[in-house]
Amino acid sequence: MTPSTASAILTVTLALVSCAKASASNSDLTVPPGAVYINPLMYNVVGANYTEWRNLSTVGFDPTNTAPPFIQVFDPSFLNVTGSSATIRLITSNPGFAFAHEAPIYVPDLNAVFFSSNDGGPLGYNGWYNNSVVSMINMTEVDMALASTTGDVNIQIQTLNLPDTVQMVNGGTGPYKGDLLFVTSGRALLPPSIVRVNPILPTMPLQFNSLNDIKILPGTDIMFFTDPTYGWLTGFRPEPMLPSQVYRFDPSTGQVRVVADQFVLPNGIAFTYDGKSAFVTDTGSFEGSFGTNQTLPSTIYKFDVDPQTQAFTNRRVFAYSDSGIPDGIQLDTMGNVYSGCGEGTHVWNAEGTLIGKFYLNSTTAEMIFTKSGLVILDQDAIYLANIQAQGLDLATL
Question: Which residues on adjacent β-strands are paired with residue 154?
């Protein structure tokens, strides 16, 4: 192979694509009105003279220069997720306050989504001396408002009055036997905990670091949760006394044990519908107040769940996010994996191929499926993507 031949192969021009139709495998691909198609072959290999390099993971990938919010389609299979009429619309906002960051729980009986503000992060207005806030938004009100206009809406949210034992809510799932199930990071010397109507405090010889996310193993009432050191890294918890690990808590016996370790900062957690596989995100590249180190993990790992011990085994890389970090994680009924990243919510198929994004050009840590579609938490705003994909049932009866 001659140098000129190699140069010709490696030099691929990045081309803008149509927002209505794009060529895919020599056929027209019709995308929803709120979406654009980006052919991976147009940007996966670029030449030495290419100038639009993304040297920071905080810079979003938007080769079409489309104004957010919109949907990026990388693979035709993503249209099975979006449906033919998907859009993204703003449903509430409060500029300057990161009220919608973590712990989304959808309660079908109320048709409401519960969520927490950013604990310890920018615009969260909390820390060593101040707690975070848990709120809810009524999706029936959202649906009625959206039906009356083609634009965005701003639905008023309600704040929950929780006891002082609930400090820095950061993860949530459920409904769990009719209740909301939260994990808290703790605040100052107040310990992290698992919280229902009354706090459940799994005991260890040492306090947990700052619990981050939680899910229930399908078919059981056993809780699995992550425990990174973000409380210390963002200044509202003391120096850690335990490794950053994933734990299993059985409420029937009170037993707590480690099921996975060797993470930098384990964050989001989710299971497949049958409970045979688990996903854990490692957001080690984001070090809280210490900034970003792009040489550390920004990775989703997949595990097998041991049918006897429920330990996480056969660890392997499922996906890497080159934009921000993969924070919260959810699955749909088709096996696709959703995670909140630096520019929006990314979606991978069951094999780990990135098939699309809900692009907001801002950090969206969490998302949750509802009857109305996918609700995306975007710090000081909440968006709704009216997609046809359905999320796994997270309720525990």
Answer: none
